[in-house]
Known about the structure:
Layout: H1 4-8, H2 11-22, E1 32-36, H3 44-50, E2 55-60, H4 63-71, E3 76-78, E4 90-96, H5 105-115, E5 121-127, H6 133-142, H7 159-165, E6 171-184, H8 188-194, H9 199-204, H10 207-224, E7 232-245
Parallel strand pairs: 1-2, 1-4, 2-3, 4-5
Antiparallel strand pairs: 5-7, 6-7
Pfam families: Methyltransf_23
InterPro entries: SAM-dependent_MTases_sf, Trans_acon_MeTrfase_C
Protein name: Trans-aconitate 2-methyltransferase
Amino acid sequence: xxxxxxxxxxxxxxxRPFYELVGRVRAAEPxxxxxxxxxxxxxxxSLAQRWxxxxxxxxxSSPEMVEAARTAGVDARVDDVTTWxxxxxxxxxxxxAVLQWVAEHPAIVSGWLSALPAGAWLAFQVPGNYxxxxxxxxxxxxxxxxxxxxxxxxxxxxPVEYADLLGDCSTVDVWETTYVQRxxxxxxVLEWVMGTxxxxxxxxxxxxxxxxxxxxxxxxxxxxxxxxxxxTTWFPFRRIFAVAxx
Length: 246
């Protein structure tokens, strides 16, 4: 289950990659713009502002996120990224920090490219920090008993692999950025991963086991990401971006 409030606790940090991704899309007057995995909808409205004449379609697999998006005024629905297909008038598809949850997403992306009309744009970004201490420690503390809850050691491709996946498109723009984010609070990195990476762990544990897990993970994260004298913590976060025009 997704917790929109936990996810939005770092809304500003999570929004920056979205805007940098969409900023590389050069569509002038798209007919239909789709936000694949719209989350709580806080960023979807910017797509309507960017392209006011377009039909903006938004969906997410989480009913909790869709409810939050609807509360925010977004016409969102529950749908599955693994089965969704773009309509013939879809000129822009945006997927922000979603595809890392889908093991078969390279095949899904290829399917979207085949279905999109000529001149359409596809833009997505995924986290690229799975080798960083945050994710490594999540797995170490989980141990072999919870190995099944993690999709893969490397849920995303490398930038060159994404470029190759999009290689037949007329325009291909793939890059990576490491954001050194300044977080605050006693356990800011723990709070960050609570909203995303720790979801499958929480779902697999009882309340008692979850409390024990967090009690072991928290000091390890504090050691890996030490607090500065001013009370803030630096959290490097690598992201991989891909934008293509069919």
